């Protein structure tokens, strides 16, 4: 140990001349004091503690953390996802993101060497190369999930990518109005064009515009999901990439049906039942059975690509409107409800969002304007009404 003024710094009389002796050691950068009855006792204790320090008994050196690279940890991460209840389709999405973007960028880096500034610079480069902001954010969230799991597996001390919202900001060049959405007039001409097309085009497209269901949820609907008594649609499964799964939120939901949509769906089911009876084959359980991969006797679910290529885009072309994705019907549904003053909590329940925050963040700019009268104006109106009221009312206000 070092000495100061010719005296051992580890044995101290404190206060000076008091006869009280202390042993002082440094432990993990902090001082640790032990009181002794005499100087000889302090000296013996000090030398014993110094020997324990040298042997690594008193202050053992921290165990070396193994260096684990991202590409080495990824298989372990992916194997644990199904055990945590992550759906197979979501695992496939994560695997694609990791293979295409994360491994080329950070695969050779040790997990502890992946820093917040490095990820921020990488994300900025992806945005500059034209990648969509939501795609980049999804990639960063996937990387953050990997690091969080690594912390739980004790191969990483902390996750530097927590609170991504403070690190990734949506570019100001992306306006809210760019969210794909049809105007009411465009929706009318689309439905008119769909009605002129034979087959399930009109009931399928009307269901999209009147319920806001996702494309996979539409294709996975069964006849039994339509409740004509309660006027609801039970959304409890989705069909995507040739598999049935639960909806995106992992929970089923019941969506209200408008009277016109209910009439259209009831008529469609009657036609399907009659067609099956005439063909002498069982009526399929699917509300909108597709021919791809099946026959009239053994129908199959519609594929997303078949719906887009044979129904959606041909109808849009006939209606002479913008070639927007199918999901634009969901945005249109939400925007029209909110513009009509429907409570946002109701819209959240209809859309199946896990949190109302998602609904507000996505569709909040569509909340209706209040014109010249704003909600706060009611306070002045109440004050003016009170001022013209009785004196007793004024007295009550002063006492409140």
From TrEMBL:
Record-linked InterPro entries: DNA_brk_join_enz, Integrase-like_cat_sf, Integrase_catalytic, Integrase_recombinase_N, Integrase_SAM-like_N, Tyrosine_recombinase_XerCD
Protein name per Swiss-Prot or TrEMBL: Tyr recombinase domain-containing protein
Biological process annotations from GO: DNA integration; DNA recombination
UniProt keywords, alphabetically: DNA integration, DNA recombination, DNA-binding
Membrane-crossing residue ranges in chain numbering: none
Family: Belongs to the 'phage' integrase family.
Statement: the UniProt record of this protein carries the keyword DNA-binding: yes
Annotated Tyr recombinase domain residues: 177-380
GO molecular function, one term: DNA binding
SUPFAM superfamilies: DNA breaking-rejoining enzymes
DNA-binding in keyword set: yes
């Amino acid at each position: 140990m070092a000495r100061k003024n010719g005296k051992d710094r580890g044995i101290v009389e404190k206060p000076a001349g008091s006869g009280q002796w202390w042993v002082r050691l440094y432990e993990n950068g902090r001082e640790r004091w032990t009181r002794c009855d005499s100087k000889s006792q302090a000296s013996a204790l000090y030398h014993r503690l110094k020997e324990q320090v040298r042997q690594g008994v008193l202050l053992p050196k921290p165990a070396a953390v193994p260096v684990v690279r991202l590409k080495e940890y990824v298989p372990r991460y992916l194997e644990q996802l199904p055990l945590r209840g992550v759906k197979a389709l979501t695992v496939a999405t994560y695997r694609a993101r990791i293979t295409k973007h994360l491994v080329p960028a950070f695969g050779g880096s040790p997990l502890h060497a992946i820093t917040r500034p490095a990820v921020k610079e990488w994300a900025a480069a992806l945005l500059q190369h034209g990648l969509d902001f939501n795609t980049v954010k999804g990639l960063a969230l996937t990387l953050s999930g990997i690091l969080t799991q690594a912390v739980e597996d004790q191969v990483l001390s902390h996750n530097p990518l927590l609170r991504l919202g403070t690190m990734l900001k949506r570019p100001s060049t992306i306006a809210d109005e760019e969210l794909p959405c049809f105007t009411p007039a465009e929706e009318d001409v689309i439905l008119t064009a769909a009605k002129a097309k034979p087959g399930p085009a009109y009931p399928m497209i009307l269901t999209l515009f009147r319920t806001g269901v996702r494309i996979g949820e539409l294709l996975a609907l069964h006849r039994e999901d339509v409740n004509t008594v309660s006027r609801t649609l039970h959304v409890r499964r989705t069909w995507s990439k040739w598999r049935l799964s639960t909806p995106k939120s992992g929970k089923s939901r019941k969506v209200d049906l408008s009277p016109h949509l209910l009439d259209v769906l009831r008529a469609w089911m009657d036609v399907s039942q009659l067609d099956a009876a005439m063909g002498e084959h069982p009526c399929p359980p699917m509300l909108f059975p597709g021919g791809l991969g099946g026959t009239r006797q053994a129908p199959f679910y519609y594929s997303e690509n078949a719906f887009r290529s044979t129904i959606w885009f041909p109808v849009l072309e006939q209606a002479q409107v913008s070639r927007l994705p199918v999901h634009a019907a969901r945005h249109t549904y939400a925007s029209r409800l909110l513009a009509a003053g429907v409570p946002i909590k109701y819209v959240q329940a209809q859309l199946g969002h896990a949190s109302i925050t998602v609904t507000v963040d996505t569709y909040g700019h569509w909340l209706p304007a209040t014109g010249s009268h704003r909600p706060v104006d009611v306070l002045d109106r109440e004050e003016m009404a009170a001022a013209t009221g009785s004196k007793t009312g004024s007295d009550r206000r002063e006492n409140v």
